[in-house]
Design goal:
heterodimer, A: about 400 residues, alpha/beta, 7-stranded mixed sheet, 4-stranded antiparallel sheet, about 40% helix, globular, B: about 130 residues, alpha+beta, 3-stranded antiparallel sheet, 5 helices
């Protein structure tokens, strides 16, 4: 085993060696280094061909027309382009946007910016399972609503929204539907023929491709319009200017090709590992899984070990690369806004650990993780006054704490 | 986040972990913080007839810096009089452990805990 063990595949994934090999073919003088926009020579044509192959590979994974794929620098840029681009284009139709409280910051901050520009935003509450229901979306839509933006899979708790059902609602109301799919590509099937989604943000680096490349899907039928946020040479049909990064794009294409081919077998294996991990904590007291257990991607386990603070837990787990919903991982004292929004109390939010499993995780690594976590939780509970109180039968919610 | 060697040492080998009988008139308990904020410290001191702290115990729910701050504090207060113990400032703890600015609140909490424990034992002895 190599230490530390990487269990943070939702943060980013390593690049698959097959992807890295393809990317290396697009950099040096002897290789495919040309500018895909160069029309007058072989170098440009070859680069353009590589970019268009990749565009088809990306389109294949989500079953859409390659002409609906616009390259961006990643999902954050795609979110910005989709939300601000659609809001600016359709401003004459209205200025109301619907999103949820547990979106990624790229979506929430884009919405905040639009609020500063005079738009109005409704932030939906998720269910306790972490899901946004089609009914909640339908109830929030008003005559002046122009855009609904929701994530496919939540980055912290891995739960899966029913995008097809929500798409029916938005289409019925003639509202643009944007979906951030950064966490879902290669993890669940995406079919744009079936899903009435108008704009979809994609990224490479959560699906074994490189960082710094992503795409925005922009539907052609019925046609969806957006205002560009990046102006320049008119690349990507004017929606996103900037010289195309051939090596990055080729990497994303290859990563998505592999995902399409291998995702079903891979996800079955990953699910087996997650079940093994969860099984390892089965006999422990006061352990809770956060978010819906069934509507969830295979690789995600978000779990709270009550009465143990997340950062101290991670400190004991230096051989594991995991993340926590605890406040102390950020500069603020607020625990994860996602866990709070699904109704977790502060103790449980502070006590959470997110472990995400992926392509290169082994059974041996999972067994090691179980052993380390059990040991650390045991030790920290011995240190915890809250555990003492719990054992003495004190209800912590009834204690008057001197908050600071 | 990078921790100092001293924080790591206290975290890995916490000193004076435990619980003392709160009904003992010579035991003072300071419980500060809140689960909502991500840290709760319980610091207890036992005082002899001369008003000198003869023993100290703690338990802390919180990050490594909070655990280290309370562990260090139990070492420092032992053998001091109550008046001497009140002189311990959060800055002393933060400096000793090399806490970064975002962790200063852990040392503040430790100072609050010892003050609360001293106050508690004084009240008990009066009563």
């Amino acid at each position: 085993m190599q230490f530390p063990i990487y269990l943070d595949y939702s943060a980013t994934t390593p690049v698959d060696p097959r992807v890295a090999a393809k990317m290396a073919e697009c950099l040096t003088l002897e290789a495919n280094f040309g500018n895909p926009a160069s029309r007058s020579h072989m170098f440009g044509w070859k680069a353009e061909e590589a970019v268009e192959t990749a565009r088809r590979q990306v389109a294949d994974l989500i079953n859409c027309d390659p002409r609906e794929i616009v390259w961006t620098s990643g999902a954050t840029e795609a979110d910005n382009l989709a939300i601000k681009g659609a809001a600016h284009f359709y401003v004459k139709k209205g200025k109301h946007i619907v999103t949820s409280k547990i979106e990624h910051k790229a979506v929430l901050d884009s919405c905040r910016q639009l609020e500063r520009e005079g738009y109005e935003v409704t932030y939906l509450d998720p269910t306790e399972a972490g899901l946004i229901t089609p009914e909640a979306v339908a109830a929030a839509i008003r005559p002046d609503t122009i855009l609904v933006s929701l994530m496919h899979v939540n980055n912290e708790i891995g739960v899966i929204n029913d995008i097809a059902a929500i798409g029916k609602v938005t289409r019925e109301h003639k509202v643009i539907f944007h979906v951030d799919a950064a966490q879902s590509t290669g993890k669940i099937d995406i079919d744009m023929e079936e899903m009435q989604v108008d704009l979809m943000s994609l990224t490479a680096h959560k699906t074994y491709g490189p960082k710094g490349i992503g795409a925005l899907y922009v539907r052609r039928k019925p046609r969806v319009r957006i205002e560009p946020q990046m102006h320049g040479g008119g690349h990507e049909r004017g929606m996103r200017s900037g010289t195309l990064a051939t090596h990055q794009i080729v990497g994303m294409g290859e990563a998505y090709r592999i995902a399409k081919e291998e995702m079903h077998a891979e996800n079955a294996r990953v699910l087996g590992l997650r079940n093994r991990l969860l099984e390892g904590f089965k006999d422990m007291e006061e352990v809770f899984v956060n978010g819906d257990a069934d509507h969830r991607v295979a690789g995600n386990l978000n779990i709270s070990f009550n009465f143990v603070e997340g950062e101290s837990l991670m400190m004991a787990l230096r051989d594991l690369a995991v993340s926590s919903g605890s406040a102390c991982t950020s500069a603020s004292l607020e625990p994860s806004y996602v866990l709070r929004a699904i109704g977790l109390n502060d103790e449980l939010a502070h006590s959470s650990l997110r472990m995400t499993i992926g392509r290169f995780t082994t059974e041996e690594e999972i067994d090691f993780a179980i052993e380390k976590i059990r040991e650390a939780v045991g030790k920290l509970r011995e240190l915890s006054p809250l555990w003492d109180m719990h054992k003495d039968g004190i209800d912590l919610s009834q204690v008057k704490w001197a908050a600071h | 986040m990078a921790y100092s060697d001293k924080v790591l040492d206290h975290y890995e080998n916490p000193r004076n972990v435990g619980k003392m009988d709160d009904n003992d008139v010579n035991v003072g308990t300071g419980m500060v913080g809140a689960p909502a904020c991500g840290d709760v410290m319980r610091l207890q001191i036992k005082v002899d007839e001369n008003g000198v702290i003869e023993d100290a115990k703690f338990k802390t729910y919180g990050c490594g810096s909070a655990i280290a701050s309370s562990s260090l504090l139990t070492e420092w207060v032992k053998g001091r009089s109550l008046d001497e113990a009140t002189l311990i400032k959060n800055k002393d703890i933060a400096d000793e452990l090399g806490l970064p600015p975002v962790k200063i609140h852990c040392s503040v909490l430790a100072e609050d805990a010892i003050k609360a424990a001293i106050e508690d034992v004084k009240q008990k002895r009066k009563g």
